[in-house]
Automatic annotation (TrEMBL):
InterPro entries: DNA-bd_dom_put_sf, MerR-type_HTH_dom, MerR_fam. PROSITE patterns: HTH_MERR_1, HTH_MERR_2. The keyword Metal-binding does not apply. This is MerR family transcriptional regulator. Residues 1-69 form the HTH merR-type domain. Gene3D superfamilies: 1.10.1660.10. It comes from Nonomuraea purpurea. Keywords: DNA-binding, Repressor, Transcription, Transcription regulation.
Length: 122
């Protein structure tokens, strides 16, 4: 498959395919004599998998590490579950931080309503 075909099949741009190849999501594609990359049929599925893992909250580096573990042949759901658990922990931390900031913003609004505005210094 040419790069444009992979991009269309995966629902991403050609630049995204190139980026994923550079970052290691996709193995380096061999080139035709014309210089065009020749991707295997699994490239689009691999991109879709990477995108879905990123949508769950894994970083691109984590996705690449997970794919490498899969490619090495020893990865199972059980052996890789810790990655998703780390995402959940990060999300919980982020939610806690957002809740803290929200409480401060609500307090600032209440202060403004009470005539003690934090936005304007005198």
């Amino acid at each position: 498959m040419k790069i444009g075909q992979v991009a269309r099949a995966a629902g991403v741009s050609v630049d995204t395919v190139r980026f994923y190849e550079r970052r290691g999501v996709l193995p380096a594609a061999p080139r035709r004599p014309s210089g065009y990359r020749e991707f295997g049929e699994s490239a689009a599925e691999r991109i879709r998998m990477a995108k879905s893992l990123q949508a769950l909250g894994l970083t691109l580096d984590e996705v690449v590490d997970m794919l490498r573990a899969h490619d090495a042949g020893g990865a199972t759901c059980e052996s890789e579950r810790w990655r998703l658990e780390a995402v959940v922990t990060r999300l919980d931390d982020r939610i806690a931080e957002l809740e803290r900031v929200r409480r401060e913003a609500v307090q600032a609004v209440e202060d403004c309503r009470a005539g003690c505005c934090r936005l304007l210094s005198e």
